Structure formats: C-alpha cells, structure tokens
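discrete fold record:
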Amino acid sequence: MNFFIPYAAIPATVASGHYDVALVLLSFAIATIAAYVALTILLQITPGNDRSRKRGCILGALVMGTGIWSMHFTGMLAFKMDMVHSYHLGLTTLSMAIAALFSWAVFYNITSKRLTWWRIVLNAPLMGIGIASMHYIGMAAMQMEGDIRYIAPPFWTSIGIAIVISAIALWMMRRVSDAIINQQLWHIGTSIVLGLAVCGMHYTGMVAAVFLPYATCRFDSTQDHSALVGCVLMANVAVVFLALFEMSRDIANRKITEERLQKYAIELEQARARAEQATEEKSQFVASISHELRTPMNGILGMVYLLGDTPLNPLQRDYINTINHSAQNLLLLINDVLDMSKIEAGELIIEKTPFDIKTDFVQTINLLKSLALNKGIALLYTIDSAMPDRVISDHGHFIQIITNLIGNAIKFTEAGKVEANLRYDAANHSIHCVVKDTGIGIPEGKREVIFEKFVQGDVSITRKYGGTGLGLAITKRLIMMLGGEIGFDSQVNVGSRFWFTLPVALPDWSSAQRPNAAIALPDTRLIKADMARVLIAEDNAINQMFLLAILKKFGFDAIDVTENGVQVMEKIERGSQYHAIFMDCRMPEMDGYEATRLIREREQKADKPVHIPIIAMTANALSGDREACLKAGMDEYLSKPLQPDRLKDVLKRWFLFSSDAELLPRSSANTENAIPSMDFERLKLVAETDADKASVLAIFFRAAKELVATMQNARRGEEFPQWKNAAHSLKGSAANLGMTALENVCRQAEKAADISYDRRTILLTQIKDEIERIKAYVIRQNPALLPPEI
C-alpha cells in the first residue's frame, strides 16, 4: 500500500470535511498552556542538582506530551467529517507515549548544560520529529472503512514547520533563562511559539491527508465521539492539575526560599555589623595604642635631643647616644606594627602629589650614610640623567620604600658596599630602582616567604640583627598599592639585589602647579621668628617642655602655653594675637579639632579676617587623620614624635630664621660621627694622589667663591638667569665631587630662581654654610688637601 498519493491520482470520491473554529482555538490554547507549564517546571530545576533535573524533565515531558496529544485529538474533534470512524486504543496510547518520550529527550538534553546554539540545532529536529511522530501515529489510529494517503509536499512541509518553529521556541527558551527583566514576557512568548509549532504541524499535516472511502463505507453526520471527548477531557484535566500542583509547589518553594534568604540576609547583616564593629574597635585600638606609645616616645626623643645640646663628658655622651639609638629602634618597631595594622585594615591612604624625586632620593641616601659609615661600608648611588626633576606619586610612601630597602641592605651587610640606582622608564612612565649589597644574602628556603610578615632569613638573623620582619612585607604592600612591582635575586654570602618599579606621572607645569605654588601665601612676606608670637596647645607636660625648648632654639621668644582648647579660646577671646598655633588634636575638655573650627568661624565673622596658621600635632596613626585636620581648618600636620628638622621645614612657610641651615642630628656633639659633607670615594675617581686631590679641591673652592658672589649680587632685582646659572654650575661641581648636601641645596636654589628675596637669602646662607662645613670636613680628614689661602 502506497503512503503518498499524487495530486493527479486523487479520485473524485475523496471524503472531505470542515473545521469547528472554536475547537481549533481550543486546541491551540491546550498546546500553549501545556508548553507554559512544562517550561515553568524546567525553570524550577536547581542547577547542579541531578535529582531535581531528572524529576523536572520527567514531569515536564509528561505535561508536554499530554499537551501535544490533547491538542491533536482536540484538532481531530474540530475536523467535521461524515465518514464513520473511531480510534484504536493501543495506537492512540502509543502516540501519547511517543510525544512524552521525545519531549523528555529534548528537555534532558537542553537542561544538562547551558543552551548553546549547537544544542538548539541538535534538539530542534528532535522536538519537531516528536511532534510529527505523535501526529501521524495518531492519524494511523483512525479506524474506518477507507484508507488515508498523504500528499508529499504538505506532508514534508508539516515536519519542516515543526522543526523550524521548535528551533525558534528553543532560542526563546534560552532568552528566558538569561533574561533579567521581562522574564515573564519571554516565558509566555516561548509558550505561544511552541504551541504554534504543535498546531502548525498538525493542521499542515491535515492538509496533506487524503481520505479515500471504500464502496462499503458508511457516512453519518451525527456520529458520537464521546469516548474521545472523555479521553481528551481527562488529559486536559490532568494537565491543569499538574499545572496547579507545580504552581502551588513553586509558590511554596519560593516562600521557603524567600524565608531562607531573608534569614540569611539577616544573618549576613548581623555578621557585617559585627565585622564593622570589630574593624572599628580595631581602628580605635590602633589609634589608642598609637597615641599612648607615641606620646611618651615624643618625650623621650625630645629630652634626648635637648640633653645632647648640653655640656656632657664622653661617658655621658655615650649613654645619650645609646638611649637615642634604642629609642629610635623602638620608634621604628612601633611604626612598622602600626603601618601593617593600617594596611590590613584598609586604613592606609594613597595620596599622589608632585615632589622632587631626585632631591628626596639623595636626601634619603645622606640620612642613611651615617649607618653605613659606622659599619665601615660604602653607600653609593646613581641617578639616571633622564630622570625628571619632579614626578607625581605618593611622596611619603616612596621615601618609606627606599628607606626600608636601603636600610635593610645596610643592616645585613658587614663589609663591602651598598649601591642604589634610580632610573626613569619613559616608555612605561615608571621609575625603576635597584638596591644591591654585598651582604649575607637570603637562603634558598626563605626566598618564597621573604615578603611575608614576621619573616627573616632564620632565627639567628633575628638575634643578631634584630627587627620585626615587617619591613619587606610593608614595602611590598605599599608598592602594590601604588600599582608597582617588586622582586629580588640573592646568593648566600655574596649579596642581594632588590628592585622595584612604580608608575608615575609628570606634573603639568601650569601656574597653579609650580613647585612653590603649594606653599605660597597671599602675603609672601615672612615674619622673623624672634618677632613672632606663637601659642602651644598641648596637655602633656613633657611635650610642652620639648616643644618650648625647640621653638626657643629656632629663635622664638614670645611663646604662650595652654593645656586644652578651652584655654586657647579664652586667650583668643581676650584679644591675644598669634602668628601661629601648635594644636594637639587630643586634649581634655575641648580637643584641637573643635578649637580650630571655632577659631576659623571667628575669623570669618571678623571685619578684617586674619588667618592664623594652625599646625596640628597628633600621636594617632590612622588614615584620615590628616584629612580630618585639614577639614577642621588646620594648615599643617605633624605626627609625634616631633622631628625638629621636619618642624622647621613646616615653619619656613611663615617664618624667617636668623640662621636657616638644616638641622643636624643632635644625638652626638662629636663631629666625627656626623653625616659627612662629601664622599671621598667620588674624589678618588678624579684624583688619585693627595697632590691631585688638593689641586681639584682648590679649583672647586675658588670657583665656588666666584659663583657664590654671583648669586649674592643676583639675589636682588630681576637677575634670575644669573642666579639660576650660578646655582646650576655649583650644583654640577658638587655632584661630581660627592658633595651631596651642597648639591641638594644648589638644586633647590636653581629651581627657585623666581621666589622671594627672603627665600633666596635663606638658600644662599645654606650654600655658604655647607661650603664651610665641607672645608672643615676636609681639614679633619687630611689638612694637607686644603691650601692655606682657601
């Protein structure tokens, strides 16, 4: 028996029928609802839960298979044909099973992993064939006195429709799982398209069907299909029941999930609150410990500084040096612990500003040279000629990084030298620093952990050299926070080579960003220290004593002292006028922040407001302290223990000192232990014999005398080029001979050619003093090197 029949072979006796529109629409609704429920079940599958997936696929397949079957036979009921016919129970049941089986296969495949394009391509034919198989097996279940043949083109078209529209539905199903908004609209749309795939296939397949009655065929327009109606009704009821069951289950699960999520959210919020409280408590603890440790340290170092200026015998001097050395080591330990606490708490602030990188690098080397000389090792450095004068990065942390690395190199080197090299990588806009030493090296087993906290080479190193093992850990974290890298290579008993890179930017030299613009005052006239009146607000008696003594050394005569903010306001309200106020941040009754705010409010209300410089003094160590001080209206920020040289640098913004030479360490009055004024290793590079050295030095001092005279004449008026050229020339000569301190002062003078007369006078005085200091140092080393006429 042939399955297909050509158009030309269709006889005139073919049976025909018509459709009940209401039942056609009902069939589409059944297919769409079944698709919606099946998709809802699939969306409830828990990702990664195999049991949930199997259960969801089985239930979804039963709903979809029943829906396809119900749609088919509702469509058959919609087709009104007079040929007497019935349906074979076995084939009818098989058609439903086929629909459910193919649906399960598709659902199981598409829920195994993400629904990719190739999965859609593979499963769309499977879905389409499943729909078509159910349809044509259902058609084969028809029992009547006649045959069914199919017209080939619409037959194949029906299968193609099922496959293509199923592919569209699967693509939309992918969008349902991905959709964040309008997910319900995609859900409904996918159900409608899948319903169209089922109905489109069915009604196109009915177009392909040709009913050929036998001669004995009976016709009855009133034939009863109540059994089929009952089956379809039962199937639809089953679909509706499953739908209601799954939706109620979904609602129950959602409610349980929401309750769990709400519970988890509450627990998470409580945990977050506890964590924040712990962090806050830790921050307060660090602040309190910082204040309690730094305050007595300020007193110890301050008294040692003052005591070092008094007449002492050699034994007493040695005791003072020992106390100072121990106190400085304790301060380093405190700073390391507090720095690590700030880093771990996220309290460390990165503040990128323009700074003179060459000067800071050289000054750091000079400060560390005394440590190297005391151990009998050389501390050398080179700076790339392409290095810009100023860069933008974190000034303070840059100095901390190179201090840690060079200090470590000196500490672990017993003989030989330490070299530091600084260069600029223009292509990557970064600086590259290398610190090499001839020290003990790092054992192989410790190289992987050398940047971790509390790690040193071994226990014997800790006993011999001391330290916390935090220096390199802090250094690495600072470099990483600045966006850089750090590394090293080392060989035991040969030495180590540490390097780091930091990204930097170059400042835009607009008028607002000139080097001196940051410290410019509306009134550029400086007040002489001995003519100024200042106020100290400090509740600690030792700190009062130290600051009072230091200010008197600087030349201040009129100094008032108070113990809290209330007393400060009382003095100001009584009409006392001050050129500067040193304000401790933490004081009883009224702290420094509140006192500063009240002073600024009073200034704003005045008819002729006069801005009083307020310098904050704090022993705290948390991030935000500086910002809090500046926000309150303070002009500068000093952390305790106060360093006299740092204090004087700050005061130079507003005051002129009679002798403006840089402060030297006061821990020893013995000049042999002071930082050397020149590096004789550099002198050996240009002169080998003493006679040659004497000749070179004579040429230098004669040239320096002429250059200083030029600067003396050029400091008045507008002769900036002469001043700058003379400073530049003297700077080059000093650098060639290893006179780093003089080189630094000349560099400042060269860059500050257009500043005020008072500031040029200060710089010129520093240059003269440094030249005399160099002469004294040469005489102490070898008097024969300095001619009498010099």
Summary: The two ends are 131 Å apart (CA to CA). Confidence is low (pLDDT under 50) at residues 457-466, 509-524, 660-675.
